[in-house]
Amino acid sequence: MSGDKATGIVLKMGKLPLTDPSHELMREAARLHRQNHAAEAIAAYQSIVARWPKLPDAWYNLAVLQRQTFRFHESLASYQRALSCGITRPEEVHLNRGVIFSDFLRDYPAAAGELERALTVNPAYTPALLNLANLYEDLGKRPEASSLYARILAIEPHAFEALARFANVQPVGSVDGSLINRLRDALKRASSMSDRASLGFALGRLLDAAGDYREAFTVYTAANQASLASAGPQAVPYDRARQQAFVDRVIGSGARRTQAHTADIPPRPIFIVGMFRSGSTLTEQLLAGMPKVAAGGEMDFLPRLVNSEFLPFFETLETVSAERLDGIAARYRAELMRASANAAYVTDKRPDNFLYLGLIKRLFPDAKIVHTTRNPLDNCLSIFFLHLEQQMSYALNLMDIGHYYREYRRLMAHWKTEFSADIFDFDYDALVREPQIQMQRLCAFLGLEWPGHVPLVAARSAAIRTASTWQVREPLYSTSSGRARHYADELKELRDYLDGLA
Asked: Which of the residues 52, 85, 185, 190 has the least number of beta carbons within 10 Å of its own beta carbon?
């Protein structure tokens, strides 16, 4: 699923008179929040609601902070108190509760209920319509999602993000030229670079499916440029030298040292890593069809840990104690429990966790790593054709993708010298050619009992929260293998750069 969900979260101050004794306390709590003093701001709002328990904006702001600090059940309770106290624009509160249920607690019926309540309060509230349509996409409910996007466009004809998502949800085989022309016209009228990016990626998908490869590539190139421009001056361009230096330092950091104490208790993680668009979502969903395995999705635990508690990364990794690793491993297991409390295994299919396999093997020395692979040109092209977040800046330029790919392959070669027995290369192209054989090999590697057939992803109703949500619900197909042949001229420079990589 591309694009950010609108959450409507802003601090509320209400219309308290300046003489109201709670006014200054609310201002002080808001100041603490703006300065990122979350604990102090939470304490301030808790003090306010203790004295004025019917102040809805204080409950709302407290809920925002509790959500931001991952205290989800407390946040839900505070949002509910804000509703009970008669907060203005209650649809925003229902929306925010829906996002917590969906994104963090994986309670999709509860999420849908909250979004429907928001729309009962305000039937034209487009953020709730967008989120509910997104949820239907995740759950594989194509007609319902399409209908909601159409409803948004009836309310706001120039809601270009909704138009792009409406186009993306249509089966490519059933799209006629009128939708393509509608996207072309919208691109001419859209002034926002964010809208131009979304529309461009949607149009490129349809042109590619129609066999208009030259125009598709041109449109995708412009969409990537618009995506970069939409990030504004805070965008950080991909730095090839920095990425290469990072990989150099990982490889040169030597053997692993302190490890967490092994705890062979369920659920145990299965890490699925590799490049984006290398078949990781399909791999996870096939594994989730096994009786003992649950899908955890793209968990952000490790990247979040590295970018907050493990700074500077290499120095922290060098000195971290076994006791601290034990604590981190326990917290990670709690994340797995959120995905499933009953499964023996939970997958974490965050592809770029390949950067942190050294840390993973220190947290979980017995961890199994499924490394999804694909034809290099097909993989790089598929990334270029995908609307990824701008912080993955390498994805916005074809040759930057090629450089990142070469560095990824270099790092994976290093990890295989360190952990060869625990890394399994799972080839997407081989899978679609001979699924039974490849799945049997994967099950043997993971110690799973082979069920005798390839699981059917489409038969399950689980949410799939990646850009591959529609592809993986279809029967296995081979049309994505060799896709790069349609773009031979456009990919000549990249092909030469990747020469020698199989």
From this structure: 185
* 238: nearest Cα among 411, 405, 409, 400: 400
Q: What band does 15 get if pLDDT is binned at 50, 70 and 90?
A: low
> Which residue is associated with the tokens 């057939």?
453
Q: Which residues of 114-143 are buried (b: 16+ CB within 10 A; e: fewer)?
A: bbebbbeebeebbbbbbbbbbbbbbbbbbe
Residue 469 has pLDDT above 60, yes or no: no
Could you identify the residue written with the tokens 């390839």? 454
Whether the Cβ atoms of residue 267 and residue 345 lie closer than 8 Å to each other? yes
Let me know: does 393 contact 236? Beta carbons within 8 Å.
Answer: yes
Per-residue pLDDT tens over the stretch 108-135: 999 999 999 999 999 999 999 999 999 9
DSSP secondary structure string for all residues of 407-455: HHHHHHHHHHHHHGGGEEEEEHHHHHH-HHHHHHHHHHHHTPPP-SS--
pLDDT of 1 reads 29
- Beta carbons within 8 Å of 65's beta carbon, 6+ residues apart: 33, 38, 41, 42, 45
Residues 6+ apart with CB under 8 A from 182: 163
Cβ count near 443 (within 10 Å): 17
Q: What share of the chain is helix, strand, coil (3-state, %, to 5)?
A: 65, 5, 30
* Cα gap 350→272, rounded to integer Å: 7
Give the type of residue at 452: G
CA atoms within 13 A on the CB side of 494: 25
Cα–Cα distance between 362 and 325 in angstroms, integer? Answer: 8
| pLDDT above 70: percentage of residues in the chain | 90
Rounded to whole angstroms, the Cα distance separating 468 from 401 reads 19
pLDDT tens digits, 59-77: 999 999 999 998 999 999 9
For residue range 270-299, list pLDDT tens digits in order.
999 999 999 999 999 999 999 899 999 999
Fold (topology level) of 255-497? Rossmann fold (3.40.50)
Strand order in the sheet with 368-373: 293-295, 345-348, 268-274, 368-373, 423-427
| Tokens at 34, concatenated | 């703006």
For the chain, what are the domain ranges? 255-497
By the 10 Å C-beta count (0-12 exposed, 13-18 middle, 19+ buried), 179 is classed as middle
List the beta strands (DSSP E) in 166-248.
none
Q: What is the DSSP letter of 100?
A: I
Whole-model pTM? 0.88
